[in-house]
Amino acid sequence: MCGITGYAGYKEAAPVLLDALKKLEYRGYDSAGIAVLAAQPLENSPSGNRLFVRKAKGPLSVLSERLSHETVAGTLGIGHTRWATHGEPSDVNSHPHTDVSGRIAVVHNGIIENYARLKEWLQARDVVFLSDTDTEVIAHLINYYYKPESGGGLLGAVLETLKRLEGSYALAVVSSDFPDRLIAARKDSPLIVGLGQGENLIASDVTALLAHTREVCFLEDREVAVLYRDHVDLFTGQGEKIIRAPTHVDWDVEAAEKGGYAHFMLKEIHEQAKALADTLRPRLKETTTGRDISLDEIKLGDNWAAAPRVVITACGTAWHAAMVGKYAFEHFARLPVEVDIASEYRYRNPVTNPDDLFIVISQSGETADTLAAMRLAKKSGARILAVTNVVGSTLAREADLSLYTWAGPEIAVASTKAFTTQLMCIYLLALKLGKLRSRITDADYARYLKALAKIPEQAAAVLAKQELIQKFAARHFNKGKVFFMGRQFDYAVSLESALKLKEISYTHSEAFAAGELKHGPIALVDTNTLVVAIATQTALFDKIASNIREVTSRGAASLVITWEGESAFAAIADEVFTIPKTEDCLSPLLSIIPAQLFAYYCAVQRGNDPDKPRNLAKSVTVE
Ligand code: M6R
């Protein structure tokens, strides 16, 4: 997730762009840049080019500081604040990216899934690339299609380029040949046009526009906008003109930053359908023999496939993703798996072998215990595979290979979209290893990939029913104790559900492997207890049904999270929340969502700020 902006008006563009980027910085902050069309040809440009580009690694303040020593005259420009996905944070990987002629500059939010193929295609035409980003192909493609000598305009070149892009984009383009306009386009990434008085703007979210206007046009997928200072033209991807009345937005700035949601946590819960799609789709390939998983970025060759054992370590929510990983690697790849809490692993005397596949999971990539565990494993000669959300984090830099979750920045302390995207990476790895190790039949592999491909839309369907959970939370938020229970994959999800609830609602909540109830925890159950049973493992329905009866007969209230169309629990639970049917072994990707919503609404009912729970920090970089 990055933030983009653009300005065409009568004011100096640079301060307007920097101000907008400040509002967008929550979307990414590992580098920032602007391109401004200077009013006069630049002195140091041999071609008299007017395109002034400055970009810098680090937060926006680094760029602002640099620009404070320069004069940037020009009333049209584009800007970007980056959350790295392709290519580590660096000056050269920062946006804007320019084409070989230096006339065209592009900023982009999204992922160009076919960039590697496009890059090869352009390289075969002698285009030299400067960065490791997917975005740079866009600048070069526009230049390729841009033929001013034959009357071909910038808009035509952008439209031709868009036809070749697979994946998601919100992008803005300027060219020194057209100092009066900027072109913007979107597909699967947000982009809003702000309509001002003598000035027009674009931004990834409304927040960045509110200082200038409250009249906006929300661009739809595959639409293109051409902004001039006095008007805006909208086009379809085929270049046909569109007429659309603007929308008036009343949001205050704080609400706008959260996309209209009351809290970042709720926004991030709702971003999961897209984050799951972003993490999955570039890695799911259609081949001539059917669907396959492509993990080119980690070159999962024979060495890794031959590993006799998987070891996974992590903290908190990431450790719960590791717990799901244990079941997934056993199920799909028939590999023995050891899962360890990083703070435990680092202080015991663990047996780690050089041929182990050692996976470290961390949203931030900066958690002190996780880094210490990874360094200890490295000393044993183990090869480290990081699953992380932050390109260029310490974990990503020190691990042998990194598989990124493409969730975008997570602001709320309680992890939500990071968890589900970690699960997605783990499933992709486990399935791919299962295939490489011939532990999974072609038919099963195809079936699982088909199910995986549906997960983003199924997640959206779960989110659409959030009101049911909101109402349930309104009735039960004051319970003294909330226990989550489940078996196997459902047990792992119970652990994460209990953590979510305790960290933001401050309710005493625990997770139990349902079979363990009778070995002790059932002594805690009374009429002040809510038990949430996660029941998606069809073969174990009878077992979990008995467990539910055991707690309800002792006065506990109960909620069951199970499959749509499942009637096994209707008569025995107080309430049943259903999720769309997928493979039992993929259920955590969906079953955690109602539990996240339940935690969120309990916290709100109790008057807590879910984004900033007491005593907790987003990233625990000290012991
Ligand atoms: O950045 P990491 O994934 O390494 O963070 C690990 C934990 O600190 C983190 O998951 C924590 O448990 C969250 N507050 C959970 O919501």
Task: Write a structural description.
- Helix content is 34%, strand content 22%.
- Strands 3-2-4-1-10-9-11-15 form an eight-stranded antiparallel sheet, covered by helices on one side. A seven-stranded antiparallel sheet has the order 5-6-7-8-12-13-14, with helices on one face.
- The radius of gyration is 26 Å and the shape is globular.
- It is built from 19 helices and 27 strands.
- It is α/β, with parallel strands linked by helices and 623 residues long.
- Helix 18 links the parallel strand 25 and strand 26.
- The structure holds 5-amino-5-deoxy-1-O-phosphono-D-mannitol.
- 5-amino-5-deoxy-1-O-phosphono-D-mannitol binds next to helix 10.
Mean pLDDT: 92
The biggest beta sheet reads: 8 strands, antiparallel
Distance between the first and last residues' Cα: 29 Å
How would you classify the helix and strand content by structural class?
alpha/beta
Cross-sheet strand order for the largest sheet: 3-2-4-1-10-9-11-15
The ligands bound in this entry are: 5-amino-5-deoxy-1-O-phosphono-D-mannitol
Helix content: 25-40%
Radius of gyration: 26 Å
- In terms of quaternary structure, what is this? single chain
Global outline = globular
Weakly predicted, low-confidence segments: none
Strand fraction: 15-25%
